[in-house]
Structures are given as structure tokens and as C-alpha cells.
Amino acid sequence: xxxxxxxxxxxxxxxxxDRFYRVESSRNRNHGGAGLxxxxxxxxxxxxxxxxxxxxxxxxxxxxxxxLPVQS
Length: 72
Description:
single chain
């Protein structure tokens, strides 16, 4: 999944999956969430023995890559 600009700086990519982390310092719980969404996604993916990561998208924004193992 990928979106268009604006993106996230390289320094912030590793922090995106931290609980309560918000890229925009102007956002708070009253105006932009609690900073839990990607942390919850990361925990769900890990519980299924998968991998999730973020990187710059070709559209200028953010791309999220998820890999889940195939169950037979």
C-alpha cells in the first residue's frame, strides 16, 4: 500500500511503529488520534509471524509493506 506526498523523513521511518508516536507534533489525541494505529498493526503482524515495514513510496509519500507466511 502506498500514498502520495507528503511523506515521512528517513529519520522517522523507524519510529512509525512505536506506540504513541506521531510524525506531526501539531497533532494530539483531540485532533489526530493516539498514535497507536501502526503499533497495533505491527503487533498483529508479529502475532502471525509476519513482517511489516515502511519506506518512501514512488508517489512521494509512504509505503507500507506486509509479509505474512503461507499456512498449509
